[in-house]
Amino acid sequence: MSRETTSPQRPQTTAILAVSLDGKLASASAQGDRIASAYDFQHLEEHVAQADAVLFGATTLRLGGTAMRLQSPSLIQQRLRAGKPPQPLQIVCSASGDLDLALPFFQQPIPRALVTTETGQARWQGSSAFDYCWCADRPHWDWSWVLGQIATVGIQRLAVLGGGHLFASLLQVQAIDELWLTVCPLMLGSSAPSLMPLKECTSPTMTLVSAVPVGDEVYLHYRLGYGEDKGTMIET
Ligand SMILES: NC(=O)c1ccc[n+]([C@@H]2O[C@H](COP(=O)([O-])OP(=O)(O)OC[C@H]3O[C@@H](n4cnc5c(N)ncnc54)[C@H](OP(=O)(O)O)[C@@H]3O)[C@@H](O)[C@H]2O)c1
């Protein structure tokens, strides 16, 4: 496998999310619960298996308690056969760094990383909970620098698993290349967490690659474009 790179280098990023028909990510009353089917879980696990690292927001972690660790023996075997580690690097994004060490996440047998601020980093000084810690405030939050750092530790494919604040902020800096959206047959109402929590946003161009109905859900795959080369890694 050869790899062509352009500068500035960042991983290929794919967001994989499930939304209700009214664009919500979870129910307002059970925000840590999944809204999609068991089939969607399998679909998500297959994407995670293809990734070198997974990125998710602190609220998603606080509510769910765990990272999306691969459990399928065949997917783990496939990774090992391809010379990859059994589990992708699990990267949590938390500006505050305020994460409870009692969360099951910290007991999971996975490699962990933190994207945070200087203040957040200070909370974890001397801790071995994270294999990597990147400070994004340089002095303002700088995704371009963070994604470059993630690339330097060998991450070519990054799966972005939400929630909405993390997804929106990456979309705004043109750092989402592909989107897999599972549309679920639900209405969750305006107080539920949203796929796009920003009041205003600039939309990339979205090219539909596929739309596959499975039961009452639809699996949409879009390729995103921003009108210029954003310097992602390209594998050939
Ligand atoms: N349906 C799905 O596919 C799906 C997937 C994922 C999550 N969810 C649901 O979505 C909900 C959570 O989504 P959410 O939008 O409220 O939260 P989120 O994006 O998971 O996390 C937001 C937090 O992450 C950190 N963060 C994210 N982007 C940041 C940035 N650009 N700069 C600095 N810090 C940043 C901050 O952490 P600090 O507060 O620590 O500073 C922020 O408060 C939950 O209900 C979860 O279950 C659903």
Keywords:
9-stranded mixed β-sheet; 236 residues; alpha/beta; 5-amino-6-(5-phosphoribosylamino)uracil reductase activity; 6 helices; oxidoreductase; Dihydrofolate Reductase, subunit A; two-stranded antiparallel ribbon; RibDG_C
How does this model look, in words?
- The chain is of the alpha/beta class.
- It has one domain: Dihydrofolate Reductase, subunit A, CATH 3.40.430.
- Helix content is 23%, strand content 26%.
- It is built from six helices and eleven strands.
- The strands form two sheets. It has a nine-stranded mixed β-sheet with strand order 6-5-4-3-7-2-8-10-9.
- It is globular, with a radius of gyration of 17 Å.
- It binds NADP nicotinamide-adenine-dinucleotide phosphate.
- NADP nicotinamide-adenine-dinucleotide phosphate (NAP) binds next to strand 2, helix 2 and helix 6.
- The site of NADP nicotinamide-adenine-dinucleotide phosphate has 28 residues, from strand 2, helix 2 and helix 6.
- One of its GO terms (molecular function) is 5-amino-6-(5-phosphoribosylamino)uracil reductase activity.
- Pathway: Cofactor biosynthesis; riboflavin biosynthesis.
